[in-house]
Structure formats: structure tokens, C-alpha cells
């Protein structure tokens, strides 16, 4: 039997140290494993929480969500899309998204991948197939990239146009009602202004009508004389008796007056026609196309109406040219001028020597017109509110507060401006600027 050689004290000590080192390494490795296990569990909890959050967001989205790879193969969808197309996520994942698109939009969506390399797709109208038929969508499509910025897919978010169309329909309906109310308001103010001008128009019409009436009486007398003379000719009267009758009836003077009487009658009738046309144009509710018109004629026509209707004498300084072309609706501009002149006349009620100065001209492809008065001016606190609807400084029953507001809207709609300021030497000045010719934005 072999005898065991006893180890030396040095070898024994070395062996013990080796075992201690191994045990220490094992403890360290175990501690690391425990630490990594804790980290993994934390990460797993975070992932579960993130997945739960993502799933809850997806489930609560009313918009449709579809995630595809770079070839357009569906990788994930949300609940809204499942309900819309009537298929589960398991049936949708793995199919090309274009198979869900209506046939008439197939060609449109084929270029999505190429378009995304340049820029996202916004508000693209397509339609998805469903058991209920094609459903139109407003689709946004964004690129999905990896950490190195390479395109790896696309994310599509859509909203059924049914809801948008309802909203647009409601908005259009509200806008139409507002526009109708505005038109009625404008017409009401116009007719109120027209009512204030009736006396002036009646006076304006009275002159040419009286002129025509007088001429027609003269023509009636001359006609009676000519009938007597012609009857004598028909009866075979002698030359001498006809000559005597001609002198007695003063036919030579009557014949000389015929042309002037006819011309005067025609001139009076033309004046009545012009006044009536201006009146019809001012009061018309029908929308007409914008055309070229003479701003000076519009201003002077409005001035005649206001001055004739005014209960006190107003001196007018006319610095208007003979003709000034402008562009727009002459009837609407007539209303603006009437409002400006009426306000100036109202401001002069307490002025000892009231006067209005009218000026007009062209500058920078625009036409301008000003109305100046020598009244008390406008209080500083009211200047910023002049064009506010229903704001008026007149007593109750004398103004609606809509005249200047409507006038301002008309000027802006024509591509022009309207402003009213106080003059340094007293009184107020209103300036209207209009396009000289048709503008693309008017």
C-alpha cells in the first residue's frame, strides 16, 4: 500500500488561498447576476408599461392608424381601422395596404413610398373599402426611419371625411346665414338712407318735369294753331287770306320755337331718366358685375340729393374734375358717398357758416375722393370707433350706427380704403380710395 506524502505547509496555504479567491469570484458573479436580473426586470416592467400605454393610446384613437414597412406591407393597425374595414389586426397584418384602398385610388397610393423620400404627405384624399362601401378619408402619411436615418416604413393616419364634411356643411350654412343677414342689414341701411333722400330727389325731379310740362303746353297751343291753318288750306282759302291768317296766328314764331321746344323737352326727359336710373341703381338689391364708372358723376348726384334735402343752406366748394374713372359697383359707391355727405351735413347743423369741400384725383393707379367740413370735428375718444357697427353719436331715432360701418366694408370689398380724421384747422375730413381699374384681388 502506497503511502500518502504529506503536503508541506507552503502548499497547503497556497491551496486555501486559491479556494478563497474562487469563492470571492463566485460571489461577485452572483452579485452581478442578481444586479442584471433586477435591471432586466425593471426594463421589462418599463416595456410592459410602454406597451400598455401605446396600446391604450391606439385603442382610444378615433383617427385611423396603419403602420407599414418600406414596401407598404401592413405591420400594425389600431382598433378604429379594424372597425372601419371590418377585419381584425391578424387578418390585416402582412397584406399590402393598397389592397384596402378603393380601386379608383389605387394608382394614387402606389407613389406614396417615392413621395415620402422627398416630403410627408398631407391631407391626401383617398377611400378605403369596407362592408358598408367605400369610405372617403383625409390621409396623412409620414416616413418611419431607423436610428441611422434610413427609411424603413411609413405611418398613415386618416380621418373619415364624413365628419369633416358635416363640419364644413355646418360652417358653410352658418356663413351663408351670416352673409344673408349682412346683405339684409346693408339693404335696410340703404333704404333708410334712401328714405332720408326722398325730399331731395323729389325736388331734383320737379325742375325737369316742370320744364317738360311747360314745353308740352306750348306745343299743344302751337299744334292748335297749325290745325286751324291746315284746315284753311284744305278748304281752298286764297293765298292772301292764308297769309293774313299766318300773321294773325304768328305761325312763323311758332315754327321757329318748335325745335327748341322739342330739344328742351328731350333734355328734361333725359334728366328725369338719369335721376331715376341713379335712384334705381342706388336702391337695387341685385348684385351686378364691377365695371368702370365716373366717380365725379356719382359724387355730384349724391351731392344734389343731400343738398336738396338739407334744411339749412350749405356752401359747397367743388374741386372735382370733369371726369374721373373708377372701378367697382357705382351703386354701392354712391351709397358710401351719400353716407359721407350726410354725416358732414349733420355735423354742420350748429355751424354758423356751414361749408363742404369736395376734392378728387388720381395717384399710384388709384382714385381718391375727399369730403371736408368746417364743423366741430370728432371727439378724440370716438375716432377709433367710427366704423364699429351700431356706434353713433346722433340722438336716438336719427341714426342706426350702420352707415359708416357698411361704407367701410364696401370700400374694403372694392380693394380700397376709407378713413375719417380731424383737420388741424377744425372740422373733419373723410377720404375714400378706390382702384382706378380692375385688380386681380378685388
TrEMBL record:
Pfam families: HATPase_c, HisKA, PAS_4. It comes from the Bacteria. It catalyses: ATP + protein L-histidine = ADP + protein N-phospho-L-histidine. Keywords: Coiled coil, Phosphoprotein. It is an enzyme of class 2 (transferase). Residues 200-438 form the Histidine kinase domain. InterPro entries: HATPase_C_sf (IPR036890), HATPase_dom (IPR003594), His_kinase_dom (IPR005467), HisK_dim/P_dom (IPR003661), HisK_dim/P_sf (IPR036097), PAS (IPR000014), PAS-like_dom_sf (IPR035965), PAS_4 (IPR013656). GO terms for molecular function: phosphorelay sensor kinase activity. Residues 161-191 form a coiled coil. Its EC number is 2.7.13.3. The keyword DNA-binding does not apply. PANTHER family: SENSOR HISTIDINE KINASE (PTHR43065), TWO-COMPONENT SENSOR PPRA (PTHR43065:SF42). This is histidine kinase. It comes from Neptunomonas concharum.
